[in-house]
Amino acid sequence: MGLTIHYNGRFKQGASLPDMIEEVKNVAEVHQWKYHIYETDFPKDSLGKEEYNDRIYGIHFTPPECESVQFTFLSNGRMGSAFGLQCYGHDTTAKEHEYLYMLFTKTQFAGPEIHKFVVELFRYMQDKYFDEFNVMDEAEYWETNNEEKLHQLFGYTTAVIEGLSNALDVFEPENGEKMEDYIIRVMTRVLKKNPKPED
Description:
By secondary structure, the chain is α+β, with helices and mostly antiparallel strands.
């Protein structure tokens, strides 16, 4: 639970992976954030193909209290992660295999300013390094560019998380109540007490 940015994309034909890595590395170093560089050059003529090897290309960095922000790819140029490759890279089920190309970064505990920074970095990198880039931002900043709404949603989500934690300490399961029903009952109470901000 917590506000998350979901994204996927494809590296641009003719763009430079080393240049992208250098730009992201510079961002991480300026902010003194940890980063990790993977392979720095795609294999020759590998972009756009269906098949891929067992390596990851690109870079990720980790702001404080935030999950890693990944600018990482498979050898075919589609965004992917080491975790995704390990879990779904050899899966033959089409639905499961699609998870290979889905990345996400939870920013809930990093706060709205880090969230905004990540989205703005995505905007900058999108045109320069991606042929295709899709974002679904649970804080709706990518879609709306609305800072007031961003702060409202962070406040709301924080209140819900804290309310749920407190409610689970106070309210116990009723006799014979299934765990799923218990969570739904408590969550309903918390959401009623903390209504979502209006659009």
